[in-house]
Amino acid sequence: MRRILGVDPGSRQTGIGVIETDGQHTRHIFSTCLRLGDAAFPERLGKIFTEITAIIREYQPVEMAIENVFVSNNAASALKLGQARGAAICAGVVSGLPIAEYSPKEIKQATVGKGGADKAQVQHMVKFMLGLHGRLQADSADALAVALCHAHTSHLLRRIAGAG
Q1: 139 is catalytic
Q2: pLDDT at 164
Q3: Do 8 and 15 form a contact (C-beta atoms < 8 A)?
Q4: I want to staple 7 with a disulfide (CB 3.0 to 4.6 A). Which of 62, 66, 94, 109 is the partner?
Q5: Mean pLDDT over residues 80-107, rounded?
Q6: What is the dihedral of CA 81, 83, 88, 89, to 10 degrees?
Q7: Annotated catalytic residue within 58, 67, 118, 142
Q8: Is 67 a catalytic residue?
Q9: What is the pLDDT of residue 154?
Q10: Distance, CA of 75 to CA of 82 (rounded, Å)
Q11: What is the DSSP letter of 9?
Q12: Which residues are within 8 A (CB) of 127 and not within 5 positions of it... i.e. 6 or more apart?
């Protein structure tokens, strides 16, 4: 069983999800949303780094997957998102994890089956795929979707490599 950490980065809220998979069966281990509040931006980046480092230490994933920056019309927002993403990536790298990156479209395609899916569809499919019940916070669902995308993609790539 491989344990995968999925991260949906944000400068105000960062979604975290940990799953375990053997390529056939996948189960939910942990998920949360880091609420970063109104602290100064450098402190929020530090919290992303320290919280993800602590989660890695506690849950011992062997791989990390993170969503790529979504480039919007607002350059300042895109820069902050990129910095939040960088803090999360640094936590994974310092902890010795290989990092995989996926676009929002790739993540939605892997979990819902279409790259233009909305958040409600992603939440529904993540709950279905992991056998979860009750309310699942959107950022946590997105982070679990990142981890599921990596589980599916890396499993397929390993099978292809093994066939050749």
Answers
A1: yes
A2: 67
A3: yes
A4: 66
A5: 96
A6: 110
A7: 67
A8: yes
A9: 85
A10: 10
A11: -
A12: 133, 136, 141
